[in-house]
Design goal:
alpha/beta, eight-stranded parallel β-sheet, 9 helices, binds N-[3-({4-[(3-aminopropyl)amino]butyl}amino)propyl]acetamide, binds zinc ion
Length: 318
């Protein structure tokens, strides 16, 4: 199994986000991906790790608005010229206070897309690819950043893969992928299925409700499974089976997994009760769909255990 990784993400490292009116240290840190890489290497997977190829900005434009792309690029450049470089929070093109623009935000977000597209292209040759995207992407809408996300890596890859047939997206991050849902909401050729914390009690609060089922031609091709805080493995497994059944019925030609590890029992911002060995089980269920599968890293914030969670998941995919 190939794993796509680039060190460029490390240059994007905001100091804080604003939660309930207070500056708190940024949860989406470079150590996340570095810990995963370290653990995979420790388990003999060094030769699987490959660098991404470079893709033109027009792939980003296939999903995002040009003004939005330029705003991230110019905002990052503007930050690079300032003294201090603490990052700042934009007042336009933004959903929340968790996605500051810093000097290398554009470069890192662009490289994260290079990673997901490299993985998508490799699906022709290999059945399963794991891409270590950072920053993550599923909260990024066509023209709005938020929730640590700038460009929607999974959506851009799904758009690319949709040229060759129907695509299913399975989002197993703790949070609902409001960006991905919005981007494909009126499309029947891309199915979005998500398991996430009930938006009445968790981020992103404004999307992820069960009655959001798609619109116009896309009606019936968006499925949300909001789950309560404290969801156990037994309950999660039941819903994951339902989600997998829906994907099977849809008969897609490929699958994109928006893979967050913030469902982990000790995640600092999550609230489900999944243990490290359970990730192997989840991956096996996904593997059971027997589809070309692109696994795209989204969230997961327990730095100490993130590597072990990722390795458990990878074992299930292999
Ligand atoms: C990609 C991704 O996982 N983005 C998530 C962004 C969530 N940001 C808001 C965090 C709110 C933290 N609430 C703390 C609850 C502690 N129990
Ligand atoms: Zn998340």
């Amino acid at each position: 199994m190939k794993i796509i990784y680039s060190p460029i993400h490390k240059k994007h490292s905001p100091k804080w986000e604003i939660i309930n009116g207070k500056n708190v240290s940024y949860a989406e840190v470079p150590e996340r991906i570095e810990q995963i890489v370290k653990e995979l290497q420790k388990n003999g997977m060094s030769s699987c790790i490959k660098a991404p190829k470079r893709f033109s900005e027009r792939y980003i434009k296939s999903v995002h608005n040009q003004h939005y792309i330029d705003y991230i690029k110019k905002g990052s450049q503007k930050e690079a010229k300032k003294k201090g470089n603490d990052g700042y929070f934009t007042t336009f093109f933004i959903n929340d206070l968790c996605a500051p623009l810093t000097p290398f935000t554009y470069d890192a977000a662009r490289e994260s897309v290079n990673c997901s597209l490299t993985g998508a292209r490799l699906l022709k040759e290999e059945p399963v690819i794991y891409v270590l995207c950072r920053p993550p992407g599923h909260h990024a809408e066509a023209n709005r950043m938020g929730g640590y996300c700038y460009f929607n890596n999974a959506a851009i890859a799904a758009e690319y893969l949709s040229q060759n047939g129907k695509v299913a997206i399975l989002d197993i991050d703790f949070h609902h992928g409001n960006g991905t849902q919005q981007i494909f909401y009126e499309r029947p050729d891309v199915l979005y299925v998500s398991l996430h914390v009930d938006p009445r009690v968790g981020f992103p609060y404004t999307a992820g409700f069960a009655n959001e089922k798609g619109a116009n031609d896309g009606k019936g091709f968006n499925k949300n499974f909001p789950l309560p805080l404290g969801t156990t493995e037994a309950d999660y497994e039941k819903i994951l089976t339902k989600a997998c059944n829906l994907i099977e019925e849809y008969k897609p030609s490929s699958l994109v997994v928006s893979c967050g590890f913030d469902t982990y029992e000790k995640d600092p911002i999550g609230g489900f009760k999944l243990s490290i060995p359970f990730y192997e089980k989840m991956a096996k269920a996904i593997k059971g769909l027997d589809l070309p599968t692109l696994v795209v890293q989204e969230g997961g914030y327990n730095i100490t255990d993130l590597g072990k969670i990722a390795y458990s998941f990878v074992k299930g995919l292999n």
